[in-house]
Amino acid sequence: MNIVIVGHVDHGKSTIIGRLLADTGSLPEGKLEQVRDLCERTSKPFEYAFLLDALKDEQAQGITIDAARVFFKSPRRHYIIIDAPGHIEFLKNMITGAARAEAALLVIDAREGVRENSRRHGYMLAMLGIRRVAVLVNKMDLVGHSREVFENIRKEYEAFLAGIGLEADSFLPVSGMGGDNIASPSGTMTWHTGGTVLDVLDGFSSSPPDDKLPFRLPVQDVYKFTRFGDDRRIIAGTIASGQVRVGDRIGFYPSGKSTTVSGIESFPAPTSDEDRVRVASVGEPVGITLSEQLYVTRGDLAVLQGQRSPTVATRLKASVFWLSRSPLKVGQEVLLRIGTARVRAHLESISRVIDAASLEGVSNPVEIARHDVAECVLHCASPIAFDVDAGIPEMGRFVLIDNFEISGGGIIREGLPDEQSWVRSKVLQRNIKWEMSTISLQARAERYCQAGTLVLVTGQADSRKKDLAKALESHLFGLGRLTYYLGLGSVLYGVDADLKTPESDSRTEHRQEHLRRFAEVAHLFLDAGLILVSTATDLTQEDANLINAVLEDHRMLVIWSGDSPSTDVKPDLVADRETGLETAVERIRALLQDQGVLYRA
Predict the structure, then answer these.
(1) What is the distance between the alpha carbons of residues 501 and 145, in angstroms, rounded to a whole number?
(2) CATH value of 2-203 in 3.30.160.20, 3.30.200.20, 3.40.50.11270, 3.40.50.300
(3) Model pTM score
(4) Banded pLDDT at 512 (limits 50, 70, 90)
């Protein structure tokens, strides 16, 4: 069981752990005598904290800088205790340590009482979803083992925890230096009947075994080997939870595309079928091969079909804590990392900012200052997959990177809808039911010397976009490329016939559904490896985002026909009116080559 111990600097966390190790006989033979001898030679008073503070900077300054991990066991189970730093300057290190814990011990100095970091650390534990917490009121020997002092601290901190929705399992009066209520009951505080720290640890209930949770494999990378005719594509990563077996049906999110696990690779390669790995479990680095070649990339999340599916969204309601000296402002863009996925995101809005120490809110917040906690909405540039209540904390926690540094982090509370949510829902159902061809996209691209791409020419109604699109189709066809021109009217009066009525305005009514159906038809052409050329009048960026949501892994290039865009769309190329058709087509062909759409035959 992973336990984190937190609290304000100098409140005695390391001393309590050192004493716990010494009193339970968990130290290596001679370690205690070695530290005592070192203290004598350096004229320092002996401290149990020195058993943990291995870094020279820590011993010199008397504070814990990094999160130290300590292993010991009781008659009930094995433990890893994470000694997290208490100084506010090392709050990031404290959070890193606490994020790996199932339960927490929070230490408060009986002389100093509840301090700012005592409250801040409690808030961080609540944010990280750690619900099993014991509060240790330490250094009781320095206040005469006073029950009144203990009760005052307990009442104050109990009220604070109630304000953040957290309830401590227990409050214990202890003395790390004297060993009171650490591994054995105190002889001087007989008024306390709540057991020892060791009793509290053994009383914590364990989380369900990770291998019984839903299967989650964040994709770290995809490897392909070409020597000796090896055409395997190996999906690599470390299993975050659950198990996977050869023959299991798995899906990859956010796309939802699914296939069967054909093999679990191992190194060195097995020499016989009997030696092949058939099952892999949580914590194992693994490489899997698939029966059908899906387009899978780093950051995708592999999930076992039939188990609970992750949430997919671009807008996230989240609790964020900020650690950078520069505040995080509304509209500011950062890099969000969850699992192996990295995606650009911006702070869309802040509902409230809370001082984690005082719990006081900030009115009309427009930024999140250093060490503040905020309830806010983050908007990602592309969909991500995550879990909120599946019992897999790492699949709901994220970090925020700004200027190449980890500057904050938080927990996703829920996924929120956006303009394309309804489209992604339909695409997800399509992908789950999709019948895969035995010919992969890569194989088609290599055969045709091109990557399936939609070239969408847009502009105002009176622009020459159709002439340009058809000239491009003829040019590509003349080069021996597989290409096709698809007019929106062909879809409007065919696939969309049920939406088109004499009274309807095709440019406004059902516009989004027209575009979705057009994109689904385009998806078929692109999946077959063709370069599809089409036109649309006054395409907006929202329209482009909708089409891209349907196309997913396939590429779309937008060409604006006219002097300058009259909508907010972001074109890849502008073909102004002064440029002849032949020149404009040559420019588009050059763009296709630069973008890797046209391979050299």
Answers:
(1) 85
(2) 3.40.50.300
(3) 0.72
(4) confident
